């Protein structure tokens, strides 16, 4: 799996799922993202062969993109990505068994969209990185903690039983009691 995360916005730009990932797949993914979002200032990655390939480094050099490689055995230098990978593993991968590559791609892409549009991030003031007002995520794709939160949300109160701010104190209490007694009065 190839995960591309924007370190500034915390948005998961892409998750490429394949049986094998090589420099060509990385190059294609980064080219697509560069066309869509513009070329980044730098790319931080580990020293895997798919990231240090000459073709990839030449292409990034022509775009003016700097490469920042983390030292082997130092995952704390790539904290955003390690944190993202941990969330992906805990919220999706540990609870799923993928029978086909297509199923894996579909579920992981749905999770990525939920991660970007719905899931709150503490580093962003508990807002999602790329909120979409029309984002509707099926409950099956929501992380378990969001499903529990949605289940705990109390239903809206009927309009006749809510206190209004324009009548503070006892006036609001009497108004509510009058409405309740009107509802109970035999007709």
Q: What is the CATH class of the largest domain? A: Alpha Beta
N-C termini distance: 67 Å
SSE arrangement, N to C? EEHEHEHHHH
Backbone CA Rg: 25 Å
Number of helices: 6
Q: What proportion of the residues form beta strands (DSSP E)?
A: 5-15%
Largest sheet: 2 strands, antiparallel
Biggest sheet: strand arrangement: 1-2
CATH topology of the largest domain: Nucleotidyltransferase, domain 5
Molecular structure report:
- This protein has 187 residues and is mainly alpha-helical.
- The chain folds into 2 domains: 2-151, Ribonuclease H-like superfamily/Ribonuclease H (Nucleotidyltransferase, domain 5); 157-187.
- Helices cover 42% and strands 9% of the residues.
- The protein has helices at residues 23-37, 54-63, 79-91, 101-117, 144-152, 170-184; strands at residues 2-5, 12-16, 42-45, 66-69.
- Helix 2 (54-63) links the parallel strand 3 (42-45) and strand 4 (66-69).
- The longest helix is centred in the middle third of the chain and has 17 residues, at 101-117.
- It is globular and about 50 Å long.
- The N and C termini lie far apart (67 Å).
């Amino acid at each position: 799996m190839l995960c591309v995360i924007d370190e500034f916005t915390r948005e998961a730009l892409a998750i490429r799922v394949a049986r094998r990932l090589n420099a060509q797949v990385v190059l294609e993914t980064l080219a697509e993202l560069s066309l869509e979002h513009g070329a980044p200032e730098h790319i931080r990655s580990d020293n895997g062969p798919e990231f240090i390939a000459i073709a990839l480094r030449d292409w990034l050099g022509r775009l003016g993109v700097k490469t920042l490689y983390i030292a082997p055995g130092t995952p704390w230098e790539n904290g955003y990505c390690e944190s993202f990978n941990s969330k992906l593993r805990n919220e999706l991968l540990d609870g799923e068994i993928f029978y086909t590559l297509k199923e894996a791609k579909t579920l992981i892409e749905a999770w990525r969209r939920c991660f970007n549009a719905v899931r709150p991030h503490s580093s962003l003031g508990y807002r999602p990185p790329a909120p979409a007002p029309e984002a509707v995520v099926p409950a099956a794709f929501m992380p378990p903690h969001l499903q529990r939160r949605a289940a705990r949300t109390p239903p809206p109160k009927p309009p006749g039983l809510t206190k209004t701010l324009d009548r503070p104190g006892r006036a609001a209490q009497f108004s509510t009691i009058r409405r309740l007694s009107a509802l109970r009065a035999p007709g």
